[in-house]
Each structure stands twice: as structure tokens, then as C-alpha cells.
Design goal:
Strand content: 5-15%
CATH class of the largest domain: Alpha Beta
Distance between the termini: 24 Å
Number of strands: 12
Radius of gyration: 20 Å
Number of domains: 2
Strand order of the largest sheet: 3-7-8-6-4-5
Shape: globular
Order of helices and strands: EEEHHEEHEEEHHEEEEHHHHH
Largest sheet: 6 strands, mixed
CATH architecture of the largest domain: Roll
Length: about 400
């Protein structure tokens, strides 16, 4: 039996809550760098991307949630729409579930990427679509003109074509598709507030599961992956591998137009300002690196052990205002519950969070304290009700 979501209210098939207006893959600080450093056309495209995103936020907040529908459990239900370079969503339907490929590569990439993300969550984590209730997967391609972004709007995926000089089409990277669809999973589960450390955890969860989608499709073990988010998204004119590096935060790009990747790998270097919703796309480098370190120490396929630990945290333990320290403590506890106290897996998780400066090293003889739930908020005065822990995924399935 498919359980209802912990976080979202439902009236029939209508979603009634969400965590943020839209969650974009390209952070505003990159667009702002392009406005400062780009040529006339690049500045114009970046400004238009920023304006279009803000217009969509306002329009969505004004109309509220859009009705969404579920498919029978265990069945994918994908539809890809074509916005035809407009901004009205969802656009014209051009490919439905089970139909053959079209002659539009963006349509086919959106269709296949949504399917791969669905299949990974289903086969590895026994999750039925984004909401665990068979939610249909709608995607819109060719959104706006030379739109340098992709986003999850609370109900569907939306992809721009890129400007062709700095960014390629946004369906080109399957980890970007997995990243954005995972924002939907977070929306229906932990509901991490999109600001500050909870927002950075939100972004990191999307990177974690996005990279696992890519690794799963390629059947890559942790030491075979590039750990780059958005590989192929930047054109050959840009000096960079992608938009984020999980194995070396702060090194994904260093370009005269885009600037230098600002992500930190340690809490001492975290961004302290208010831009980018308190640095959600910047400070996510810290938990990203922690996942990379834990997965590498465990070895094998990321989804077998590290991914399972992170998924249980997202599904059952994290709360809306969880911060880095609380998340780290929960993940250490979950690792102990799954694999044993002081197991190699638990040590790998603790070592990772110690290395990024979130947890303080403890003596080897002192086991980590058990954490029953993440009821704490980012502020000490906040409280949260406790809910029972749900079962872990039944098996470690590999592709």
C-alpha cells in the first residue's frame, strides 16, 4: 500500500502545499555575473532569464497551486509539452507515455530523463513517483527564448533552450533532470524551507539524488563518476566542467563571464549573506562534499548504502528547518541503525561530516548519541511534533 506524504496536504488530487515558488538549477549569482561580465547579447539573455523567472514566481504565487493527478501505482505517466518559446505552461503536448521518440532531441531527453529518475526511485528506494502516490511527470521544453535555466515549479519540470553561447539546452544533462525532480520529492517529504542551511540542504539533496540518477543510468561505481552536476550544460566557450562539483566544491568553473565557482567545502568558508536565499546554491557545497566523502569511503554504488541513508533522512527524519548539524547527527544515527553502531558505514558518515567541519571529532571509544527524530528547528526555540519512523527500503537493488 502506498502511504500518504508526510508533508503535503491533499484535497482529492490537488496539492495544497509547497516549499518554494520555483527551484532553479542555475543560481542567480551566475546570471548576475553574466550581466556584469558578458557581451551585449549575453547580458540581455541573462537579464531576460532573471526577469522571466521573477515573473513566473509572481504569477504562480498569485494563482496558487496547480491541480496535479496521479497514475496507478507502479506505472509511469509522462507527458512532454512544447512551450514554443513562450512562457505559458504547460504548452502543447508533443509526447505521451509509451509513444515513440520524436524528431526533437529536447523532447526525447526530457521524456527519458523523467523516466530514468522515476525508475531509480522506484527500483532502488521503492518510491512511486515524486509524491510516492504515482504522480504523473509533466515536463515542458523550449520555455521562453534563450532561457538559461531549468526549474521545478511545484507541479512540473520546465526547461529552457539555453543561449547557445554560454549554456546548451537544459535537457542535455540527466543529473539536472534528476536534481529538479528531487525538489519535488523534498516538497512532499521533508519540506526543507528554501532559505539558509535548510535551503542549502534542499539543494544538496537534489544534487545527491541527481548525481545518483546519472550514476545509475551509467552503472557507475563511486570511483567511476565525475561527480559533476551539469556536465555538458556549459558550451565549449566556457571554462568549466559544469555548474557544481561534489568532489571538489568551488572548482566546477572559473570563467571570465560566469566568474568563479563560489561553493565552499568546509563550514568555515560558508557564505554569510542574504543573496540566493541565504546562499542555498552556494553553501550546498558543504553537504554535497560530505555525501561524496561518505560514498567514497563506503565504496561500490552510491545508492546501495550512502544513498539509502540519505533517502531515509529525507523521507522520515529531516524537518522543515533542519540545519547542517542536525542533518549530520541524523545521518550518523541512521547509518548506525541500518548497519550497526561503530560500523564502517556509520564511521564513514561521521568522518565525512567531521571533515567538512559540521561535527566535532569524538574519541573512538565514545559512540555517537542516538537521535530519535529531528524535531529541532534552526532556532532553539522552535519545536516539531514526532512521527513514527517508517521502514527502510527492502533491498539494495543495483542496476
Amino acid at each position: 500500500m502506498i502511504r500518504p506524504s508526510r508533508r503535503s496536504g491533499w484535497i482529492g488530487s490537488h496539492q495544497t502545499s509547497c516549499i518554494c515558488s520555483i527551484c532553479c538549477i542555475v543560481p542567480p549569482h551566475i546570471a548576475e555575473q553574466i550581466v556584469r561580465n558578458g557581451n551585449e547579447h549575453q547580458r540581455e539573455w541573462a537579464m531576460q532569464t532573471l526577469i522571466t523567472s521573477e515573473q513566473f514566481r509572481g504569477r504562480r504565487e498569485a494563482i496558487g497551486g496547480i491541480a496535479t493527478f496521479t497514475a496507478p501505482a507502479g506505472e509511469k505517466r509522462r507527458t512532454v509539452f512544447d512551450a514554443r518559446n513562450g512562457i505559458e505552461l504547460p504548452g502543447t503536448p508533443v509526447r505521451h507515455e509509451g509513444e515513440p521518440p520524436t524528431d526533437d532531441i529536447a523532447v526525447n531527453e526530457a521524456y527519458d530523463g523523467a523516466g530514468a529518475t522515476y525508475d531509480m526511485f522506484d527500483q532502488i528506494f521503492e518510491r512511486s513517483s515524486i509524491d510516492d502516490r504515482g504522480l504523473r511527470l509533466d515536463s515542458t521544453v523550449h520555455y521562453s527564448q534563450k532561457y538559461d535555466n531549468a526549474f521545478w515549479n511545484g507541479n512540473q519540470m520546465v526547461y529552457g533552450d539555453g543561449d547557445g553561447e554560454l549554456f546548451n539546452r537544459f535537457t542535455i544533462a540527466i543529473d539536472v533532470i534528476g536534481h529538479e525532480l528531487t525538489h519535488g520529492v523534498t516538497q512532499y517529504e521533508a519540506g526543507l524551507i528554501y532559505y539558509g542551511e535548510s535551503g542549502a540542504l534542499n539543494e544538496s539533496m537534489s544534487d545527491v539524488f541527481g548525481i545518483m540518477v546519472k550514476q545509475w543510468v551509467k552503472n557507475q561505481k563511486v570511483d567511476e563518476s565525475d561527480w559533476i552536476i551539469g556536465a555538458g550544460l556549459l558550451t565549449d566557450k566556457v571554462k568549466g566542467e559544469g555548474i557544481r562539483s561534489m568532489k571538489a566544491p568551488g572548482t566546477a568553473y572559473n570563467d571570465p563571464v560566469l566568474g568563479k565557482d563560489p561553493q565552499p567545502a568546509h563550514v568555515k568558508d560558508m557564505y554569510k549573506g542574504t543573496a540566493d536565499n541565504g546562499g542555498v546554491h552556494i553553501n550546498s557545497g558543504v553537504p554535497n562534499y560530505a555525501f561524496y566523502l561518505a560514498a567514497m569511503e563506503m565504496g561500490g554504488y552510491a545508492w546501495e548504502k550512502a544513498g539509502k541513508i540519505w533517502y531515509i533522512a529525507l523521507r522520515d527524519r529531516l524537518r522543515q528547518r533542519s540545519n547542517f548539524k542536525r542533518a549530520a547527527s541524523l545521518l550518523v544515527t541512521i547509518a548506525g541503525e541500518l548497519y550497526g553502531v561503530n560500523s564502517q558505514e556509520q564511521k564513514a558518515v561521521r568522518n565525512a561530516w567531521e571533515k567538512v567541519g559540521v561535527l566535532t571529532p569524538v574519541k573512538p571509544s565514545a559512540p555517537p548519541k542516538a537521535v530519535a527524530s529531528d524535531g529541532d528547528a534552526q532556532t532553539s526555540s522552535a519545536t516539531s511534533s514526532e512521527e513514527p519512523t517508517k521502514k527502510a527500503p527492502k533491498s539494495d537493488k543495483t542496476k
